[in-house]
Amino acid sequence: MPTAPVLSQIRLGGRTVFLLNFADETAGALETHACDVLSRDELTLWRGFPLARKRREWLAGRMAAKAALQADRLERGLEPLPFRTLPVLPDDGRSGPVQSPLDGCLTISHSGTMAAAAHSDTPIGIDIERLRAFTPAVIQQFVSPTESRLLGPCPDDDPRLTLLWSAKEAVLKARRARNLTKIRQIEWRGWNCSGAMEMREHGLPVSGVFAGFWRGHAVAVASARRLPEARAA
């Protein structure tokens, strides 16, 4: 009998991050809940993925996202809703940034057999990365000379490299940016007294970036400017 997937929560910078492990022993149990978790439109997208791995990570991401949405409702004193009534659909196509069915911003990330999600009333980005080694060529693509000096001697499997990548990608996700070629323009300058990562872009501060390690992964969340207020017609 497949093991039921376990949903975990961590706090980063005052944000609650929901995480779901969809390893092989839990994947079967995860898929048995698809019809209870996914809306009709989501089921259509999910069934259209030809690879089982892609279906699993997509479903796990939706489950983590809907747990974040449900928690947001409960914090506002609202009644919980069935997950299938909270559709989490991509802005365009079948993947990429997603739309929140509630007021606010929703963000999802996957790595290996782990999915992560967070919801906020302001733009937010999340990234989770399994700790791994980077080739020298890849390190040059996202680590600046200034960062190299701050890091000091740094083997290619130094977990700080994964943490740095994750933090930068979270910043881009908060902006709903798809172009990772700009990742090197975001520079890490250390940590401040509140535990946030001090980041700069073209010399200007990038605030609201928090990152940490969790069960062999680097996890990061980043904020962006507030959502524009609706204008009267």
TrEMBL record:
Give the metabolic or biological pathway. Answer: Siderophore biosynthesis; enterobactin biosynthesis
Which Gene3D superfamilies does this chain map to? 4'-phosphopantetheinyl transferase domain (3.90.470.20)
Q: Which residues form the 4'-phosphopantetheinyl transferase domain?
A: 123-192
> Which UniProt keywords are present, listed alphabetically?
Enterobactin biosynthesis, Magnesium, Metal-binding, Transferase
The protein's required cofactors: Mg(2+)
Would the keyword Nucleus be found if you checked this record's keyword annotation?
A: no
Q: Does the keyword Glycosyltransferase apply?
A: no
| A Gene Ontology term for the protein's cellular component | enterobactin synthetase complex
Binding site residues for Mg(2+): 127-129
> Where along this sequence does the record place binding of CoA?
62, 109-110, 127, 169, 173
Q: Which reaction does it catalyse?
A: apo-[aryl-carrier protein] + CoA = holo-[aryl-carrier protein] + adenosine 3',5'-bisphosphate + H(+); apo-[peptidyl-carrier protein] + CoA = holo-[peptidyl-carrier protein] + adenosine 3',5'-bisphosphate + H(+)
* Function of the protein: Involved in the biosynthesis of the siderophore enterobactin (enterochelin), which is a macrocyclic trimeric lactone of N-(2,3-dihydroxybenzoyl)-serine. The serine trilactone serves as a scaffolding for the three catechol functionalities that provide hexadentate coordination for the tightly ligated iron(2+) atoms.
- Quaternary structure and interacting proteins, as annotated: EntB, EntD, EntE, and EntF form a multienzyme complex called enterobactin synthase.
- UniProt-recorded name of the protein: Enterobactin synthase component D
Which organism is this entry from?
Notoacmeibacter ruber
